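Just curious: can you write a single protein's sequence together with how it folds?
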Amino acid sequence: MTPQDMEVRIVRYGDLKPCKTAFIDAHTPGSDQKENFTIIGGGVSESPDQHVHITTPHGFNIGAAGQPPKCRNSLHDHRTAEVFFVLSGRWRFFWGRWGDAGEVTLEPGDIFNIPTGIFRGFENIGTDYGMIMAILGGNDAGGGVMWAPQVIEDAADHGLILAETGKLYDTKKGEALPDGVKPMPLLTAEELALRPEPTTADVLPNHVARYLDMMAYSDKSPCKVIGETGLLKDKPGFEVDFISRASASDQMHSHDKPSVLMPVKGHWRVDWDGGTTTLAPGDTMSIPEGLSHRATPSMTGEAALYHIIATDDPAGLTWTGH
């Protein structure tokens, strides 16, 4: 495969195209400065303005959220797995019907396999603009986002209405729901009562992995982070490996499914049959199935990257109640 062919499968951090109207809380004070990025797959954006960088199906979606300090993403849920790792900044993740059931703070390189079936949100609590990278299960990411009722109500107060079709309408621009289209219904009290409210102690041991721990675990071989035998044991429809300088191999290899490389520290040289390139933190590279390749650090210093590949497991619920 030529370098020109591969270039369309590489999304550089500096080339990411943000959408500031991706979701229903785009006008809500405190959430109106966030930027959403859809890197691989259609994602779950509710806006026609969302740019998709790579449309090739991978069995999962890759996206990102960029937010200035004190900006938050409102309480929501997905029907498939949602995994975040911190690229930059300091982030507080919180969950539950009102966002007060539990919380955890993540630093660069940390990863969180957020349990489905509970509302979750996050905010940048650092002092600079921060970025978190996201993996969503399934090619269609489960068909959209489910919002806590108060998020939909607050959004309507600031001009945004979400239709039952999943499309946003901005009354500040003179838009209105089309004839015959109803607003997205709020979850009922009975539906809300069925949602678990796990505490921080319930969630952390099985759903959060720390960067420094993964560096230690990957001293001889790549660390399986998410998978049936991973640090975070789960089968969400994809596996995530953590590779450090110590565990990077110079052996060429291939996979029977498309895979994705996402550096979090250092610069990485990627060689394949037909070319070579260098990736930096924030870059995303899709490797076609069957293509022989390898990834190795290209400079001295700390180096780590995440490797994602789909599995044949259904991209279903991940919360197991422990």
Q: What stands out?
A: Residues 149-157 form the longest helix (9 residues). The domain at 211-310 is CATH 2.60.120.10 (Jelly Rolls).
